[in-house]
Specification:
It comes from Alosa alosa. By secondary structure, this protein is α/β, with parallel strands linked by helices. It is about 30% helix and about 20% strand. The structure holds flavin-adenine dinucleotide.
Length: about 475
């Protein structure tokens, strides 16, 4: 292999693109990406709605600061100039058919968010659901005794905070999520909604990447490693990758970037020899949640121009009763954001749902979704004239065979430090020296940034740098650095 090892990157999501582009920038020449679907981007994806493109996957920069390579790149390219940053009005309606006072809703909502904003550690086994229910009750008692509002309304609003958190996590219930989920989290700053622009990131990152080295529509079925496979020029390679269409790729190193959902769903025999037991255990223990978006396009808006979101509050819902019960899916599509600016997107709402509801709505027709959501809007807003959307576009991330959900979460009783085990590379078991045959990147391998776009990108950089160090090629000072190597 000498100075020119053959490297295959499996998956063209942000981790794969990050790994491949970084490897080229570090001087590796023989780098190929193999991707199952017909487009690059993975969980960064777009769809056409009317006359504009919308992001069907990621749309928020979690941490809009120079520390975040996603923010920096889009900023440098001038792509963030027309992003709407002004806060709009947040409308909250009650199932009894009235609107809640904006002051009360935002005041209580912020207090609820405050409960969750702390970074917890040292609570092994505890879950967010119990903690949030207990703290919410205390908060509701305080606010009620200071004469802010009825306890029932306060708990109702706090339940919305829990619902929104479930969308951030994707898990079926807050009770199944570790309270210490973000103990290693790197906070890069405020969130920024860049809807309709995130997909440009893929195009920008792949700008100079040689087209012939990005092989699309090649689903990998099997990874044989720790072997001796004869290739051209009588070279022997330790790794042989087999695709569904019969193609085979021999290489010295493969960087696996498929989602945790795909790793969970893959038969153990996808790897031959099998993955080591601790890696299989890690894949099993970590959670892979789901969220979906429902784009609702209207002829005319039934909300004012300055509205940013519409939330629907069910009577009797409290932080202790939160669920994503699929049989109650009509009640569980409660949070809608307005796509802004109107001049670009027209009159479009995005309905958000998570966990079991997100999985269930993938089985419904868009007409069913339209009918249920319209019925709720009419009831909550006491307005029978609210129109049906002219078009509904619903994402199906769980059914995407090469994704199988949205992002990783940490179940109660699990410490995110096990993500380091997932990131740990595999070397030949026959040789005493490490040869890094199989490497792992992807958001699920980043205990400090899982579930994010920058986490995926930085995990790819990390593995490229790992190979670079292996070949004694330290990263040039000018190259943006990744997170420390997971061991
Ligand atoms: C609906 C949704 C909303 C989100 N919102 C945000 C957000 O606002 N902000 C944020 O920071 N993050 C968000 N995320 C998370 C973010 O999108 C992901 O963390 C990130 O894109 C993951 O990148 P990745 O490269 O690790 O994995 P992926 O994007 O899943 O890439 C893996 C690639 O591997 C390919 N692949 C899988 N199996 C095979 C196979 N057998 N053979 C060949 N190729 C294969 C897949 O097709 C895919 O292209 C969201 C995700 C979803 C789904």
């Amino acid at each position: 292999m000498g100075e020119n090892p053959k490297i295959v990157v499996l998956g063209a999501g942000l981790a794969g693109i990050g790994a491949a582009t970084k490897l080229l920038s570090l001087g590796f020449k023989d780098v190929t990406i193999i991707e199952a679907s017909g487009v690059a981007g993975g969980r960064i994806a777009k769809a056409c709605l009317g006359t504009s493109w919308v992001d069907t996957g990621a749309q928020w920069i979690h941490g809009a600061s120079e520390a975040n390579p996603v923010y920096s790149l889009l900023q440098q390219q001038g792509l963030l100039e027309d992003v709407v940053t002004e806060e709009g009005t947040e409308l909250v309606f009650h199932s009894k058919g009235h609107r809640l006072s904006e002051y009360l809703a935002s005041h209580v909502y912020e207090a609820g968010e405050g409960i969750m904003r702390q970074q917890h550690r040292g609570n092994p086994g505890k879950n967010i659901g119990d903690y949030y229910a207990e703290k919410s009750l205390g908060l509701a008692n305080n606010l009620r005794s200071s004469g802010e509002a009825k306890q029932e309304d306060i708990l109702n609003i706090l339940s919305l905070v829990g619902k929104s958190l479930l969308i951030d996590i994707g898990a079926p219930a807050l009770n199944s999520v570790s309270l210490d989920s973000w103990q290693y989290y790197t906070n890069m700053g405020e969130d920024l909604n860049i809807e309709g622009k995130m997909f440009l990131l893929t195009e920008k990152l792949l700008g100079d990447f040689p087209k012939e080295r990005l092989l699309l529509r090649k689903a990998v079925l099997k990874i044989n490693w720790d072997g001796c496979f004869s290739g051209d020029e009588s070279r022997i390679y330790p790794v042989c990758i087999e695709c569904e269409n019969g193609d085979k790729f021999l290489c010295d190193h493969v960087v696996i970037t498929v989602s945790l959902g795909c790793l969970k769903a893959a038969p153990p025999t996808m790897f031959d020899p099998l993955l080591p037991e601790d890696k299989r255990e890690t894949i099993e223990k970590l959670g892979f949640g789901c969220i979906n978006k429902i784009f609702l396009q209207y002829e005319e808006a039934f909300w004012e121009r300055d509205v940013e979101s519409i939330s629907l509050l069910w009577e009797n819902e409290t932080p202790a009763s939160l669920s994503t019960d699929a049989t109650q899916w009509q009640r569980n599509i409660q949070l809608f954001t307005v796509m802004r600016p109107r001049e670009k997107f027209g009159h479009v709402l995005i309905g958000w749902c998570s966990g079991n509801v997100a999985r269930h709505i993938e089985t419904l027709t868009e007409a069913q979704l339209s009918a249920a959501i319209t019925c709720n809007f009419r009831m909550f807003m006491s307005n029978p004239c609210i129109p049906c959307p002219k078009r509904v576009l619903r994402t199906q991330w769980h059914s995407e065979a090469f994704i199988r959900g949205a992002y990783t979460y940490i179940p109660a009783g699990v410490d995110a430090v096990i993500m380091d085990k997932l990131a740990h590379p595999l070397s030949s078991r026959k040789s005493p020296t490490e040869d890094l045959q199989v490497l792992f990147a992807g958001e699920a391998t980043m205990k400090n940034l899982y579930g994010t776009v920058q986490g995926a990108l930085l995990s790819g950089y990390r593995e490229a740098e790992r190979l670079s160090l292996h070949y004694g090629r330290p990263a040039p000072a000018s190259t943006p650095s990744s997170s420390p190597l997971a061991t």
